[in-house]
């Protein structure tokens, strides 16, 4: 029952809940739960239906035991249970059907174990102990990486910042296998969900209207899944509904993303950045998207100047988008001289690829795989990852140069000095 985009476990969960149908299982589970130091009152009467209803309004536990004896369609009911379970929950099922195919199907759907009723105390203890070991075991094949947040900012409307934001998120999640959150902060006219042929839902509007509701469970239920590793939070708020917010909800969302995902991509309109500058506080990389025009050069200069003072910690990359194969309005050389820095990535103009992406409901990077546009999107992601790593290394170096860092180094040296002294005394 692991949502693919949320690695790691929440230590604040209850350790155990159970939902059983018969008195014998109820009494046995309460006794074994008490032995393991768990609250016996977390064992409830009622099977799968009661479990789904209960977990739809409360956080799911670390280990969930559910009785499927009254289930008419076990696999369908397991899918319903998965929709209300938080990521990381280890599920043990029990039932009266002795069928190898059912057992295999249940394991394939994410169930940790299936116990045939009636089961004994020793069998139950072993299953619970194994589930506990699975919950606390480190994930195989995962690499602990610091969270990476990228803000994609267009110098002007229509330069294709949203298209590149969705492409960046797609490449990170599919080609680099990083769990990624995509946050579209154009609350009224955002296109991130639309470009992936998804309904945006009410998640972002609910977050703005009720910031107090924002937690891990809210994130799990409010975001729209685009793939196993990619989830989107966006909105199509009515034009008659002004967003009255101090930006606190956005900050809370980003805080939750840090614990739920490996990467966050923010499609950040210029106006939102200016109105809520605190959104840039934890941004590792700022991707400035522009076109090679006179207005684009002017606004790139202004954005770069703002980022230098408003987000000095962020690595800034400049992406020139929709560059025509002929002569652009301003040549690359003149554009770079105007902004006093190099363009990091050039994305060529490709009307056919853009039209194909729109028709298929796919990101530009996905629809244009194998083309020059696809190669440019891949290069853009590599630049972002490289910039994030450089920002992380610089932060670590500064920390090491600081007084606290030196004190930490000194503490690390003390044990080895003690060992040396002990060896000399001997």
TrEMBL record:
Annotated region described as Disordered, given as residue ranges: 388-426
The UniProt record lists the keyword Phosphoprotein: yes
Protein name: Pilus assembly protein CpaE
One of the record's GO cellular component terms: cytoplasmic side of plasma membrane
GO function term, MF aspect, one: ATP binding
SUPFAM superfamilies attached to this UniProt entry: CheY-like (SSF52172), P-loop containing nucleoside triphosphate hydrolases (SSF52540)
UniProt keyword annotation of tRNA-binding present: no
GO biological process terms held by the UniProt record: negative regulation of cell division; phosphorelay signal transduction system
Cited InterPro entries: CheY-like_superfamily, P-loop_NTPase, ParA/MinD_ATPase, Sig_transdc_resp-reg_receiver
Domain Response regulatory, chain residue ranges per copy: 17-132
């Amino acid at each position: 029952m692991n949502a693919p985009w949320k690695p790691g476990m929440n230590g604040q969960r209850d350790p155990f809940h159970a939902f059983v149908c018969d008195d014998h299982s109820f009494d046995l589970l309460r006794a074994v739960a008490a032995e393991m130091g768990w609250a016996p009152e977390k064992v409830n009467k009622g099977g799968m239906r009661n479990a789904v209803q209960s977990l739809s309004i409360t956080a799911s536990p670390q280990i969930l035991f559910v009785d499927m004896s009254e289930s008419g369609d076990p696999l369908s009911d397991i899918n319903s249970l998965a929709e209300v379970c938080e990521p990381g929950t280890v599920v043990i099922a029990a039932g009266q059907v002795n069928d190898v195919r059912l057992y295999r199907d249940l394991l394939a759907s994410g169930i940790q174990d299936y116990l045939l009723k009636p089961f004994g105390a020793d069998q139950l203890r072993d299953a619970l102990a194994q589930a506990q070991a699975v919950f606390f075991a480190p994930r195989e094949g995962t690499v602990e990486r610091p969270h990476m947040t990228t803000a994609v900012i267009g110098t002007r409307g229509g330069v294709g910042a949203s298209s590149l934001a969705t492409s960046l998120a797609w490449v990170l999640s599919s080609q680099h296998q990083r769990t990624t959150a995509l946050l579209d902060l154009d609350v009224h006219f955002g296109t991130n969900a639309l470009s992936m042929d998804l309904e945006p839902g009410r998640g972002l509007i609910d977050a703005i209207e009720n910031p107090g509701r924002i937690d891990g469970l809210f994130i799990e239920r409010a975001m729209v899944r685009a793939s196993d590793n990619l989830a989107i939070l966006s909105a199509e708020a009515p034009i008659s509904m002004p967003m009255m917010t101090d930006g606190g909800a956005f900050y809370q969302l980003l805080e939750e993303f840090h614990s739920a995902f490996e990467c966050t991509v923010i499609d950040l309109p210029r106006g939102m950045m200016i109105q809520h500058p605190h959104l840039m506080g934890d941004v590792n990389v700022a991707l400035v998207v522009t076109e090679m025009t006179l207005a684009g050069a002017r606004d790139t200069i202004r954005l770069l100047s703002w980022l230098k003072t408003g987000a000095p910690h962020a690595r800034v990359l400049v992406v020139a988008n929709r560059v025509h194969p002929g002569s652009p309005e301003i040549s690359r050389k003149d554009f770079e001289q105007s902004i006093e820095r190099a363009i990091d990535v050039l994305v060529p103009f490709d009307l056919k690829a853009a039209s194909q992406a729109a028709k298929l409901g796919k990101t530009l990077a996905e629809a244009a795989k194998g083309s020059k546009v696809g190669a440019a999107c891949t290069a853009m992601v590599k630049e972002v990852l490289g910039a994030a790593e450089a920002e992380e290394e610089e932060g670590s170096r500064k920390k090491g140069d600081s007084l606290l860092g030196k004190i930490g180094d000194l503490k690390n040296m003390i044990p080895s000095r003690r060992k040396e002294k002990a060896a000399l005394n001997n």
